Amino acid sequence: MKTDLTVIIPIYKTEKTLNRCIESVLRNAVDEIILVDDGSPDNCPIICDNWGKKDSRISVIHKENGGLSDARNEGLKRVKTKYVTFVDSDDEVAPDTYMPLINLLTENPHIDIIEYPAQIHIGLKDEHRLTFHDDITDISSLEQKKQIWLNDLFAHSYACNKIYQTKLFHDISFKKGALFEDVLITPYLLKKVNYYATSSKGLYLYHSNSTGITLNFTNLPQLLQAQLQICKDMGIDIMSREADRLYLSLVNTYIDICRHTNISTNIPYRRISFSSAQNAKERIKILMYNVLGQKFFIKIFVLLRHLMIVMVLANILY
To answer: For a Cys-Cys bond, which of 58, 66, 145, 237 suits 70, CB 3.0-4.6 Å?
Structure first.
């Protein structure tokens, strides 16, 4: 059955997981798979070419290394189908994920983006499943776009667990060389979206990658600055109670920056409502933040960092 769906897979130094990734996509109904070899120095180019010979739905692009964004953009230039999605080459897609989503899109052709469940950080202690209700939301006004961003979309702006109408990318591309490119592009896509859907069907399997940028704490200041810039562009006042969940997320990023790096950064301080907490740990954190104030709150976490270093050294020396 024709799905009118293209899957773009950017590839760089993932020879150990690439076959697993491609096989998982092939277990789904797709019209085309575009493998973008981003100048990978390992066996990935050969693996790509072998797959291109095996299956007529697979096309291969070889290019000089330009990063994840550049690889996705190169793949987008070749897409001829109505819909497009992305899969990272160290991840998987569960069987029978795409067809129910395509059926929903076919029945509701006005939907611009549909988001579906994902298993996040597979293999880590914080592994969890991101789930959704079946819903179609009109976000044609700027206020509606702002609300969907505030309602936690900022926290799961992954490109890979969404199917897009390809036309959204006709004059928008992933920023080359940028970190957290998914976060940066999502608000600009939202500006063109009238209907945003979520589905309880399907599952994207996001594996932990020890070399991934999200595990590199020195890059977190760039994520914080990107979030603050997006709020400015969308007219979101992070000092307002309306933005409590987003503000708490910014505080968490700020804590990680201060705990793990010596990079100086800052966010404006305000008290956080307890209603924004989703668990006991967050409630304790909010209480400390509100009572101690930002300055002393951060000093405690920095002190804990130094104490941990001393404990590690003590174990090594003695």
So the answer is: 66
